[in-house]
Amino acid sequence: MMKALLTIALIFCSCLFANAQDIHQLKNIKPHEAYDNILVKKLYSDPESTTFIIWVKDFVKPHYHEHHTEQLFVISGKGEMDIDGKISRIKKGDFFIIPKGVPHSVKVVGRKPLKVLSVQAPEFLGKDRVFVE
After folding, report:
1. Contact 100, 68 (CB under 8 A)
2. What CATH class does 37-131 carry?
3. Mean pLDDT, rounded, of the chain
4. 83 exposed, middle or buried (CB, 10 Å; 0-12, 13-18, 19+)?
């Protein structure tokens, strides 16, 4: 009985790892093209979520997402993040969850671009960004 349970557990774990995306060393992902202010690179997408690396040189205008929750992890750089009117200094290692419908923006305060990992849930198809004036 124990041997059967162990075998099932091993098969389950190997299936999980076989389907996992091998995206490590986020710090080593570099922009492969010139950009003025913002560059977005999609890393992965399925119906449940979309994962991006985003580089920002200056700022991201205030906006919100009607149908998506966004999770941001700062890989490098420094900035001032405004989430629903609350401004926070951000730096490498910081993590934010921005619920759908909540206005947010960011201003870079360092010399280097801000680089973040952004996960949008559900899948982001590019038509859910409403800018706020």
Report:
1. yes
2. mainly beta
3. 85
4. middle
